[in-house]
Amino acid sequence: MGYKVKAPELMPDINVVPMADIMLVMLIIFMVITPMLQKGFSVEMAKTDNPRDMKEADKDDAVVLAVTRDGRFYLGNQQIPLEQVVEQVSEMLEGRLDKTVYVKSDARARYGDVVKIVDEIRAAGVDQIGLLTDQRERKGPLISVPAVAGATSGS
How many CB atoms are closer than 10 A to CB 56? Predict the structure, then answer.
């Protein structure tokens, strides 16, 4: 008489542990890769209350110049000397109808550096310059209190 090995009974439940492992690995991969997908040099831009939405600056073919707080200039992700801005921007805008260049400056960049880059962009024959800013975060509800001017009592 021989001993017969009995197979374990089938479970009707789905085993989700391998799927959860795969999802966690994918999440980590996306978290690491996403910051690398940024197309321009990153600076801490000035914050304003009423920025104008410039969706064209997010396009792949947009010309974006960045000014860092230590006075360096970037065209896209490439550092560029000030002397080459006119040549590089002119090349990029050659044959385009929309000759708009976007400038994103670090909030602590020197004003003189921003003026220099704007001057070089104008020398390249640019029609429009867009200054990119961030939306300032508002804390709490916006309450406006009417001002009372010159209220006096007559006697």
Answer: 13
Contact 104, 64 (CB under 8 A): yes
* Phi–psi pair at 130, nearest 5 degrees: -105, 125
For residue 58, tell me if it sits in a domain: yes
Q: List, edge to edge, every strand of the sheet that includes 63-67.
A: 78-79, 73-75, 63-67, 100-105, 128-132
Residue whose C-alpha is closest to residue 124's, from 75, 60, 72: 75
Range of the domain at 74: 38-135
- Domain count for the chain, please give it: 1
Cα separation, 67 vs 129, in Å, equals 14
In whole angstroms, what is the distance from residue 43 CA to residue 66 CA?
Answer: 7
What CATH number is attached to the domain comprising 130? Answer: 3.30.420.270
Tens digits of residue pLDDT in 43-55: 777 787 877 778 7
